UniProtKB/TrEMBL annotation:
Key word Isomerase present: no
Single GO term (MF): hydrolase activity
Residues annotated as domain Phospholipase/carboxylesterase/thioesterase: 15-216
Protein's name in the database: Phospholipase
Classification lineage: Bacteria, Pseudomonadati, Pseudomonadota, Alphaproteobacteria, Hyphomicrobiales
InterPro entries xref list: AB_hydrolase_fold, LYPA1-2/EST-like, PLipase/COase/thioEstase
UniProt keywords, alphabetically: Hydrolase
Protein family per UniProt: Belongs to the AB hydrolase superfamily. AB hydrolase 2 family.
Keyword match Hydrolase: yes
Cross-referenced Pfam families: Abhydrolase_2 (PF02230)
Organism listed in the record: Methylobacterium variabile
């Protein structure tokens, strides 16, 4: 099983981490593409450590990394991909929590595009819910040919979920947000969502703001469990 590495930021407070935010990049990027988001959220999360692991495979495009191959020729490749890459990400999360001496409720996942697919797939199947999951410009992956009802039997935990998307996304159309929210609701996983007007496949200030507030609220709720 591949061992993941990537850039990190220690807590702004200078104290040992009390939360951990894992940032999962998209297809053809790497951890350096997302680690700067941490600086946007550090004022809200001064006791959080941030890590942005590089995905396990070189990207088939010839640059960057990928969680799994995307040729867009095989309708089953996303489903096979999240299932194949899921154990590697799961093991990374467990190792990071152990290294920091943190519990599952002190973890949050933020994923962009393909990283969003991984964050949603893995978090719903972990034995204990994480504090928050933020999916940016991505989608929930279902088995090809099956409807939203197919998710519920696979769900092991129900974390708070925020989905954010640009309404002009040319890579993953905005319909993916609503289909993902529908599938989550069918599995009794409530999801909030934010739509960024005039934004393509990217992250604008509005999505950053909502995501930061959502992460802070998730950790605050988790402390009360």
């Amino acid at each position: 099983m591949p061992i993941l590495t990537g850039p990190r930021l220690r807590p702004r407070s200078g104290a040992p981490p009390r939360q951990l935010v894992v940032l999962l990049h998209g297809f053809g990027a790497d951890g350096n593409d997302l680690i700067d988001l941490a600086q946007e959220w550090q004022p809200l999360l001064p006791d959080a450590a941030f890590v942005a692991p590089h995905a396990p495979e070189p990207c088939i495009q010839g640059f960057g990394r990928q969680w799994f191959s995307l040729t867009f020729r095989d309708p089953h490749e996303r489903w096979r991909g999240v299932n194949r890459a899921g154990p590697t990400l799961d093991a990374f999360l467990d190792a990071e929590l152990e290294a920091h001496g943190l519990g599952p409720h002190q973890l949050a996942l933020v994923g962009f595009s393909q990283g969003c697919m991984m964050a949603l797939h893995v978090s719903l199947r972990r034995p204990t819910p994480v504090a928050a999951v933020v999916g940016l410009s991505g989608m929930l992956v279902l088995e090809e040919g099956k409807g939203p009802e197919s998710l519920k039997p696979a769900v092991r935990s129900v974390p708070p979920v925020l989905l954010a998307h640009g309404d002009q996304d040319e890579v993953i159309p905005v319909d993916a947000l609503f289909l993902s929210a529908e599938a989550l609701a069918a599995a009794d996983v409530p999801a909030e969502w934010h739509l960024s007007a005039g934004i393509g496949h990217g992250i604008d200030d509005g999505a950053l703001h909502h995501a930061g507030q959502f992460l802070a609220a998730g950790f605050a709720r988790a402390r009360k469990r």
